[in-house]
Amino acid sequence: MLDDLRITVRKIPRGKVATYGQVATASGYPGAARQVAWALHSSSGMGLPWHRVVGAGGHIRLPGHLGMEQRFRLEMEGIRFRGQRIDMAAHEFQFAAKRKRKASRR
DNA sequence: ACTTTGACTTCGG
DNA sequence: TCCGAAGCCAAAG
Questions:
Q1: Which letter, b or e, does each residue of A52-72 get, where b requires 16 or more Cβ atoms within 10 Å of its Cβ?
Q2: Strand B contacts in A 57-96 (CB under 7 A)
Q3: How far is the CA of A62 from the C1' of C2 (A)?
Q4: A48, A40 contact by CB (below 8 A)
Q5: What does pTM read for this prediction?
Q6: Is the CB of A42 under 7 A from strand B?
Q7: Distance A68 CA to B9 C1' (A)
Q8: In this predicted structure, what is the pLDDT of residue A96?
Q9: Is pLDDT above 50 for A106?
Q10: Cα A18 from Cα A16, distance rounded (Å)
């Protein structure tokens, strides 16, 4: 399950960001925002774009040095910052709607 | 097995 | 706008 969260995070394209809650919901676990953080923390260094995951409203929820590094990386990907926050209105990534695989595909 | 903490979110004052 | 409390799931002590 934390695995699912990691996969979802991996789907975030370059130049976009998503909130923990979004990732959790998109993975099928609404309300498991903390687990997203735990998943990233647990698998940091696995090639996951953890820097593309931010808090609600584009707020950096990482403490100290890590937060600054994330901010730096995001700026490097073309994401603009609005003071202490990210310009979510322009970079918030929206996950594809999860459809029930039930003989309907299109 | 139980308690505490954590890269969270949302509402209220 | 900033601070605090409750809800939430999983891992560590």
A1: bbbbeebebebeeeebeebbe
A2: 59, 61-63, 66, 70
A3: 19
A4: yes
A5: 0.87
A6: no
A7: 22
A8: 84
A9: no
A10: 7
Separation between Cα atoms, residue A85 and residue A17, nearest integer Å: 12
Contact A39, A5 (CB under 8 A): yes
Instruction: Say which residue the tokens 């995070």 belong to.
Output: A9
Question: Which tens digits make up the pLDDT trace of A57-90?
Answer: 999 999 888 889 999 999 999 999 988 899 998 9
| Residue carrying structure tokens 């603009």 | A80
Which among A75, A5, A8, A10 is positioned nearest to A48, based on CA atoms? A10
**Secondary structure (3-state) at A88:** helix
